Amino acid sequence: MATHSSNTSKLSQVQALVDVLKVDLQDHNLSQEKRATTLEELKVFGRDANQSDPIFTKEGIEILCKHAFARTDNKSALEAMRCLANALLIVPETRQIFLELGYAEGAVNRYQNDSLDEEFLAARILFLVTYATADVPKWLEEYKLADYLNDAISRHGKIYSRINKNEQPSALQDMAFTETMKLLFNLTHFAPEKVDLFSRSVPNLFKILYKRTLSSLPLQSPITQLVNALLNLDLSSQAGCVFPSSNSIYNVARLIEILDFSVENPNDNHDNQRNQLFDEAGAPLITLLRKIFEISPDQAKEYMQKRLLPSNEERKNPIGKDGSLASRLLQLSASAAAMNIRQHLASLLFEVSNSNPEEFVRNVGYGYASGLLLSAGVQLPQSALEDLSISSDSSGRVFNPVTGQALDSEPQIKDPFSEMTDEEKEQEAERLFVLFERLKQTGVVDVQNPVEKALHEGRFEELD
Question: Subcellular localization, per the record (predicted)?
Fold first, then answer.
């Protein structure tokens, strides 16, 4: 790497490097090693926008683009792409310069190569530039970006096919795949009318989702980006892949497994790092489950209802008290520490209850259901409030609509006087009378003795 005097300002050093690269475009006077070293040094300076202005001018961006996409040599081209990616990230105004210079197609063309380095850098550059262009449909079809991106996803699918479920891909593969997923999300977001161009990637995305080893905190890269990407795709057109005929719950079970690993009991006495992460990153996963439930066949719907709603076994006690997934979701849906995810969870449970208010109350109890129904403007079912014997299954078993507990499992309140003799009742009344008289004499509170009040109201019966 070139060295410079400590007395030379950063700005002048950056300008000197840009000038060297500019001359090299015309004269080709640098060796491949010297060119790559110069670009690497410029990349280090460009990580901080302070006194790096020559990089972010139109001339600076054009010099980087020419070195990146003219393919003088691959090592230098990759370094130039790294400089360019940093510039587009740090100074958003450079994205428009990049587009005006006409290098979008050059970046797309670098995406088609079977190279994880090139995929990572091209995906990041294109991802950043999507925020500054209306030409995404043109990229997808005329520049064939949709084909290149589908091919890249297919390559990742093949890599996952060769490894066992408990193995991990390389760090570079993870980075490249993550950037591709981010780009896929933006492309389908800004050009929703073109999502059908990515239908052939749906099987590979679900394959990767299943084969990817889950960490203790699963909602991190690349799982979060993969879930985000699936969210915008037309899954109904690939129903045979989403719900395989051999096992229709195959992919649904995987998504719920991710959900299960992502949610802890908010009442446990430990740090809630998992729930904090879920509150920040869980909304796309919940939304994807809602989308899948809507198009699910009966078997998959029944599986989701079984996993996400309280079981009859749980209803032996007030629901939401044990450690099952359904209970943890209910607790989180009512937790003040989960402000971002609460409404999403409640909406999921409502839709899994077939979007029926009465069924929703039967499934989760009025205590949990009321907040969602009121915030969504859904009229509360009067039958749920007037009748404490709402049956929730074909067997006719009835449940308390407030707590969700089966009525036949609720503790029976015992009359404390049922086993007392008349003499014992009279003694208890005298004892209470004396206690209240002593309380009045303290002057701390002004209280009327309930025994005295009952006597005045004629509610005492004189015993023989």
Answer: Cytoplasm, Cell cortex
